[in-house]
């Protein structure tokens, strides 16, 4: 209804634009404030009343580098890339199958996938911890990759299925009449059309893994430390390192900033598990 | 020579002109029934390992005496009995209920209002929409950090400039206050999730058909009437699905609470998630923690199923 229904009058559109801009500015102010704290000297940070102007410093950055936080960044990046790649490889055929083929107990299987996605991570971390301790997966990269499958594989199948359903089935029917085999149809017809959906869903998976805290905290131990897990480490016995936390927090935020701009149309579909097409 | 793909695409567009009656009912031959099962096998196997096995193991644990990582005797429903008579458990349910019952409706109303505003000819949406999404898409742990900074005792920007200015709180962080910490967490949740509601509802508004609005405009309906008689009825399934989804998610909030209050002061912000985590990794009372996890899980299945049924039947989404 949007543009056609609302009147094309300039002034009203401008008013609502203004309202939205002011709202966004207020909502995003905390992020701006944290960004400023990256280069804020400690005395300015704790000043009362609030000090707006200060001489920028790089001390927080140097502390973070000295204490090896770039390794946590690398760990995060590797873990998210590997687990997302695995999700795409095994999840894509499944999503396609759920969208296109008749199967027995399809509804129940599908609900099982949804339940995996929705299960509270706290409930999963208990059995994971004990099972991983038994089979030697605790504090390993592989263990964490597996744990991330719970929410990301189920998410991926569920959302990519909604992308699959958007594809016109006639293309596949035509290819089948041509005598193409099913793997051929998948590779040459479905996959090229589905590429955007795959990328969008995979990027969302990457972000969920990137943002994940509990599993990494409890199952990664000291061996596999991701960026979110490193943040509470800056609450030290000598006090809280606020500036350093701001640096790490903003670093963790950067990929998200990139993703919201690139994926904007697909985020709603992703976050609503395909219930709303963005 | 043309690539084989192009011919297929050309054929398909030609077949669009044929009426459905001409197409044989089984256009995709079903000679190989095992094919779909083959496609889903790796994923289902993986999900059985990472989702079903942990769930069954939790049920197993909940019926056993398990402390300090050692699983010993089968004790029937004892863990459940202990849990259900534990005041701390009921406190956590109360905290979560307060949290959800206050936060979700506010997010819902603000989100709907925001979506209606955004739907008025707002310019620069391609810039504004992604920015508005930031709070929802960023790591919950960073959201917590952000508000730890803004609401830090004495020097926090929001503490000093708002709370102290209006004599609401002096010197300490609001997260250290037993009465207000929970409301501060609710505030943070609203900040984090209102954009999600807003942009999901906005997407729903954008997808509404124009016809009814044209007809209503011809009949001289005003915008308020249009909202209550056209927009709201058409949006109801979507509102229900999004509300339910948010409701489910709000119950399992962990990261932000963990970094902001850790369930404290005392047990004033201790949700079942925080409690289960403490039971496991602080008290090492794994049997009781598992019993709690099983109860939470069962509650989730109910809501999860409701979400699925509504989304499928009313929204035709799945």
UniProtKB/TrEMBL annotation, chain A:
It is found in: Cell membrane. Keywords: Cell membrane, Membrane, Transmembrane, Transmembrane helix, Transport. It holds the Pfam family BPD_transp_1. It is a multi-pass membrane protein. Its main location: membrane. GO terms for cellular component: plasma membrane. One of its GO terms (biological process) is transmembrane transport. Gene3D superfamilies: MetI-like (1.10.3720.10). Residues 73-263 form the ABC transmembrane type-1 domain. The chain crosses the membrane at residues 14-35, 71-97, 109-132, 138-159, 197-220, 240-263. Belongs to the binding-protein-dependent transport system permease family. This is Binding-protein-dependent transport system inner membrane protein. It comes from Ancylobacter dichloromethanicus.
